[in-house]
Amino acid sequence: MNMEILKKYGLSISLLALLFFVLPSCEKNLDEPALNRTFNEEIDYSISDNMILPLIGTYADFYTRGWETIPLIAVRGDDVNAGGLGDQQPFDATDHYIYDQAYWMYNSLWQLNYSDLYRGKTAIEQIELYREAGAPSALADQYIAEINTLNAFLLFHVARVWGDILIPDTGDPADLLVAKLSTKDEVMQYISEQMDAAIPNLSTVHPADRTDVPGGVNRYTALTIKAMAEQELGNYQAVANATSEIINSGVYELEPDFYELFKLKGKLNRENILELQYSDYGQGSGDANFHLYAFYGPQNWEPAVPGIGAGWGFFEPSFKFIKFMLDRGEAVRLETSVLFTDRGIAELQQDPKYAVLPDFVSNTTRDGDVITDYARAKFASGKHYLPSNQITPGRTGYGNNKNYTCIRYAEVLLMHAEAILQGASSSAISADEAVNLVRARAGMPAITGVTLQNVVDEKFAELAMEWGVRYYDLIRWEKYDELNYDGRTFTTDKIYLPYPQNQVDQLPALDIR
Amino acid sequence: MKLFTRLLLIPLFLLGWGAAQAQATTYTGVVTEEGGEPLIGVNILNKKDATGTITDFDGRYELRANVGDTIVVSYTGYEPLTQVLGVATTLDFELRQSAELLEEIVVVGYGSQKSRDLTSSITTIRSDEIEKTPSGQPMQALQGKVAGLQIVSAGSPGEAPKVRVRGVGSYPGSDNEAPLYVVDGMFFDNIDFLNNNDIKSISVLKDASAAAIYGVRAANGVVLIETKGGKFDAPAQITYDGYYGVQAAQNVLKMANAEQFTTMALESGSEADISFINNAMQRYGRSRINPNVPDANTDWYDVILRNAAIMNHSVDVSGGGSKAAYSVGTSYFMQEGILDMKNEYERFNLRSKIDFKATDWLTIGGNAIISNGTRYLPEDAAWFLAYYAVPIMPVYDEKNTDATPLQLANAQDLGYRGGQNPLVATEFNENQQKIRKLLGNFYVQFNILPEKLSFKSAYNSSYTTINSRNLDFPYFIGNNFQRENSAIQKINSNYFNQIWDNILTYEDSYGKHNLTAMVGSSYRDEAYDQLEVRALNFPTDQEAAWFIDQAETLDTDRGNVGDDGSRYYGISYFGRVAYNFANRYLIYGTYRADGSNKYQEKWGYFPTVGVGWVLSEESFFDVSGINYLKLRASWGELGNDRIQASDGATTTSVVTTSLGDVQYSGTQTSNTFSALRWEVVEETNFGLTAEFLRSRLSVEADYYTRDTKNAAIRVNIPAIGGTVLRNVGVIRNSGFELALNWSNSTSSGINYSIGGNIATLKNEVISLFGQPYIDGGTAEFRQRSIVGEPLLAFYGWETAGVYQNQAEIDADPIAVANNLEPGDLKYVDQNGDGVNDAEDRVVLGSYLPSFMFGANLGISFKGFDLSANLYGQSGNKILNRRRGEVIFTNDTNLDADLANNRWHGEGTSNSYPSSKGIRKGWNQRLSDYWVDDGAFWRIQNVQLAYNIQGEKVFGPGAPDLRVSFTADRPLTVFDYVGFTAEIPDGVDRQTYPIPAVYTVGLNVKF
After folding, report:
1. Mean pLDDT (whole number) for B592-601
2. CB-based contact, A171 to chain B, within 8 Å
3. In terms of CB atoms within 10 Å, which end of chain A has fewer, N or C?
4. pLDDT for res A130
5. Distance of CA B294 to the CA centre of its chain
């Protein structure tokens, strides 16, 4: 019995004693960190070679543009329409200058651009940490300047679409809650100053020749963005100065083949100043980064290479543009800019003036892709089309592997010409020379004594369907009448889109009722 | 074999039942209650042949029986008496009031208490109630039975219902609102692996006083599950229980047919839409009934729905000797889904529980449950696709000759942007999950001072593996409607959780003082890891080759190869004191200190106190008709550590991009930082427990308020989108709960019970730390949490009818300003400024019901018993996002309700826009037009059963039989235009329908 009691108390007491010792030692587990996370405190910033990683991450962000964002920026011009009714009616309404604050595309464009702006700022903070840990300071300056250049491009478009906006000054988006609106002019001034700061730190070689970041931005990208901002401000001398420097550098030249410039040959072309890069890395399957070009493509086609997908039919060159081009006797630029359907051609021919059309006005492209009729639209954008025979075998998406051009040297030349005609003096070439360079490449005869109207028309012909250049030019020139076409009525209160409702709800500064 | 032979004999025995037997003696007497009042309607039953009688108005009875027979004298609310008949033929009985209900032992955290000693709100549901519901999900059986417990059914086989105890105190998402489930001491996030037959009881600890002992895990309520065990000194009992049945979709949503759809398209004013109709007539011909409609009329829901089987078989053996008690059981459950694809759930469970008295001071025991389930998940997108697919397209299209492997029709051939055919979802996907769970509990208990001081050490562990295999089969239906590469994805997840509890319990009484005290510690370790891989082009035609190794190439895109893990530790110290004086004054308190490695802040402390006053025990209390009356009050604090840990720090991830056609890696760093901590819930509860009219009527009522004091809320990051969790709010849930139960017998031998419960819920945001509101939902489907309003209320414009004619447009400056036409919606100008804008938005309702009720009825007579349950709720709203997504694609199909009630001319509708209108941004913004009433009521369960006492009918040794017919959720009534009004988060996009289930069941007890 004693034995039994001994066992009973012995066992229970020893268990309790064990507890007394074991539990406190378990408490050290409470300091265990969460698993499978790279906490920033644990990044080794002394590995200077890694300083490029946040920069490449920023390029990745910059290239990841939502499919709806660029069309929304561009759709209001007289060069392009939203396609017929049917799906996405508020997109079509926007094309007709009827705005809907709650439409998801508005919010999406705003949010994606601001999101990338802030990610860029975070990347700059990361680069600063590498610099503090001993990375080469000049290189850090260059990377930061590149990020600021990309950010300037994004902010530029936000300001063109909405006018007065918020400038993200700090790295914390929460600071926007107490930020004040900057006028569009203040934003353009800010962009110009940002570029001034970036320019000395940037590379001077052509993007295609860069070995550290192939296709990355350089000094001339920053100069171009500065010129675009100054152009918005009406400081034409500043535009002429910046464009002169680009022209004088000799880094860029026009691609002789306008048609192929918008195809695979256009990738990192000598003409390109800024482009979004995509690739399938030459592989028929596996990793790939693509833009969703389907939005621009025709809904129906018989591709020369069977099995390549069609598009959604949302981005339709206008009759106004096509007739304008035909009137001018344009060939390669019209062929490159527009994919025709039989239905569209027939409607064109109803106008006796266009009863007889040049041969290239056909539903078959020079690469043999046949655009069949589809409900939404009568034409599709040719600048966003990649012939099916240029798609890597194994890939099937419309436009897969095509880069997206943001700024071309041709635009720089035309900005240069306009600046001179607006009264600025050039240290490079004359307005005539600049315009004729562009015309010659397009197979158009040279003209002398170029007028502002010549530049206006040349920009229309050269840059249609690209980033809404036409719309924002018309606004800048106050040629509002041009926007009254095909049943549309434009009034000056329609210049800017209303702030997205979702943003007004969050950001007190936007609540300007 | 023996079993089956016996089953075959049933009909024969049924015929013989009821044959009269000769009886010799007549016994008479009076049945009275203590104190001498005669009792009317008392049952007197001869156990030998089940003959019986009842007492008359004077309490008298008369019964013919044989000497040696055993009779049972029983009356609701009184202790039954058993008597072996002797030669004396006059037998009077005096029945004592039953204290059974109040002496009931209730499982509480780390121990048990007598029901009468409770100061808190606990509801316990027993196995017989749970087994009535034919479901693979035990929690489903509780719907409508526990006041204040909301169960949102899940229709998909193997999917656990959503469970909410007393509202939502935590911001929804990532399951941080789910209660804690404790299965025999082990913590779980749900009990989807248990069979209804595995469970002895489920106790819902509703208030802080009951739940606080679980500290940082308790904030969302605690559900305690006791699995079946044996009994000491009980003969072996073998039970078979099974059912087989069929499930059928209920309230199938009626879609616009080809004619209605065509009419809508023609009225749309959209050339494109009209041309698609023409394309369909060209491709499929014209209908002979109406030549302006294409000759295709597909009801896509009809195509993807099917009737589905459900069955369960379980066998249990339990009993015990003087030293040991045991229970061993096994079950097989199978349920097909009503979505017509490889969609089913199968589960095989084994369990055993053994308690062994090693010595008089040492008890050891253990229990193990093995659950092996296979689930084929539905492709929920099919529900959504079927809503949108146009009816003017057949399922199969013989003209689509290029299509393979099935000649499915392609809406792109008609001109639509998408291919639409929902069969691509159901035919070319297979999602398998193998779910294996092992639960083991082992304990040793020392009775250091007999009946007074004991020490228990328990080790609990659970091991779960979920192996997912998701297959994408290739198809070609059109150039833009194809899947070129087949793909196989494998995701293996492992969870290993351990809990080690040590508990010292002291119980004693000195005179009228009764005391129970407990102190304990608990160490917790939760490990999780997951590995996933995806590969392309696997041999699709042979299942034996469905392995990554057999595929052509690994799909190495980021996100397709993944490795993840987490490990959380917790250490807790806790104690409890329960004291009562003369069973009259009750005091109760617990305290728990919880340590965790999940947050920057390591320790949290959670106290609770409760008091009770049993008025009916007071000498001055003498109210006739009231047998028992207790008032209760409690207060406590609870924690919720389901809030994720990872948002607490900025992190960096790796991305790739193309630079000059070469793939480069870069890094992206998150730009938000917040230090999270667990949420703290403070709850106050007032309650009343009473019994009336000889305990035939029982009442339980509670009023509570629970405040989540630092609720973690998803805050939108300004300008850039995305959200970050921050502890920035106070959310209050308050409500009143009442449960009534009446049970009695009639003089004709019918036993019946009828009960009901109601619960109200008010969910309110009390504070957002200075901000007026926080937005949730999405930009297009806005939900907003505003101070003073429910959490995540739907937020938008209030409609005021439809513009009927041009005169009405011209007279309204708002209509003119917005270029409106007749057939457009009219919105209320809330601030009366003559402009329609964001300032006119209002709260359109909450997804949480403000009122829930349940009712039950049970009747038994002779061998028959019938039970029925009702459940209903109201006050909640549903965002009909199926309809609402017309904002993203507006040329596809609509439901018949929309088509029939559309405005199409003056006076045709004052609530639905025109076909043209529904495509316009003006009408598409979130208004009460898209937000519907979510009220419903339902016949939850009806069961009719017939019981056969085997010994009586078949002779000695024969089993007892019970044959039952069950209709589960046969009728649901609601106004909402959808399959079900049970939408977990109130946003209905592709909710799996809730089927009705009809089963035949058999229960055999040896």
Report:
1. 85
2. yes
3. N
4. 95
5. 44
Q: Rounded mean pLDDT of B291-298?
A: 93
pLDDT digits (tens, 9 = 90+) for B724-748: 777 888 999 999 999 999 988 777 7
So what CATH class is B24-98?
mainly beta
What ipTM did this prediction achieve? 0.86
Residue to test with chain A: of B390, B479, B555, most A Cβ within 10 A = B479
Chain A residue with Cα closest to B922: A100
B397 or B86, which is more confident: B397
The CATH number of the domain covering residues in A46-281+407-510: 1.25.40.390
For residue B898 the two structure tokens come to 């929309």
Whether residue A13 lies within 8 A of chain B, CB to CB, comes out as: no
Distance in angstroms (rounded) separating the CA atoms of residues B162 and A30: 31
Residue ranges of domains in chain A: 46-281+407-510, 297-402
CA distance B574 to B520: 5
Give the residue extent of every domain in chain B: 24-98, 101-240, 799-842
Instruction: Extract the tokens encoding B722.
Output: 């995305």
* The two three-digit tokens of residue A4, written as one number: 């039994």
Strands B25-33, B60-65: parallel, antiparallel or unpaired by DSSP? Answer: antiparallel
Report the Cα B890 to chain-centroid distance in Å. Answer: 35
Q: Given pLDDT bands bounded at 50, 70 and 90, which one contains residue A468?
A: very high
| C-beta atoms surrounding A200 within 10 Å | 11
> A 463-502 residues with CB below 8 A of B?
500-502
Residue B22 has a pLDDT of: 46
Question: Rounded to an integer, what distance in angstroms lies between the CA atom of residue B386 and that of residue B978?
Answer: 13
Least confident of A254-258, A399-403, A473-477, B413-417: B413-417
Q: Is the confidence at residue B1, as pLDDT, over 50? A: no
Tell which CATH architecture fits domain B101-240. Beta Complex (2.170)
Other beta carbons less than 10 A from residue B485's beta carbon: 16
> Which DSSP category does A422 fall into?
T
Contact between B530 and B502 under an 8 Å Cβ cutoff? The reply is: no
> pLDDT per residue over B863-898, tens digit each?
899 999 999 999 999 999 988 888 888 788 999 999
Confidence of residue B20 (pLDDT cuts 50, 70, 90): very low
Cα distance between residue B305 and residue B343, in whole Å: 11
Q: Which of residues 311-350 of A touch B (CB under 8 A)?
A: 312-313
CA neighbor of B558 nearest in space, from B663, B655, B661: B655
Residue numbers of A between 264 and 303 with CB closer than 8 Å to B: 267-268, 277-279, 281-282, 285-287, 289, 294, 299-300, 303
Question: What's the confidence (pLDDT) of residue A508?
Answer: 85
Give the end-to-end CA distance of chain A in Å, rounded to a whole number. Answer: 91
User: Whole-model pTM?
Assistant: 0.79
| Separation of alpha carbons B501 and B457, rounded Å | 6
DSSP string across B386-425? HHHS-TTS-SB-TT-TT-BSS-B--GGGGT-SS---THHH
- Please tell me which of the candidates B521, B666, B887 has its beta carbon nearest to residue A19: B521
Please tell me the total number of residues recorded for chain B in this structure. 1006
Cβ–Cβ below 8 Å for A173 and B720: yes
For B357-375, the three-class secondary structure string (H helix, E strand, C coil) is EEECCEEEEEEEEEEEEEE
Find the helix or strand (DSSP H, E) in which A501 lies.
helix A501-506
**CB spacing of B565 vs A36 below 8 angstroms:** yes
Whether residue B299 contacts residue B255, with contact meaning beta carbons closer than 8 Å, is answered with: yes
Summarised one tens digit per residue, pLDDT across range B744-786 is 877 777 888 999 999 999 999 998 877 788 888 887 888 999 9
User: In this predicted structure, what is the pLDDT of residue B21?
Assistant: 42
Higher pLDDT, B825 or B952: B825
- Reported as half-sphere exposure (CB side, CA atoms, 13 A), residue B10 has a value of 16
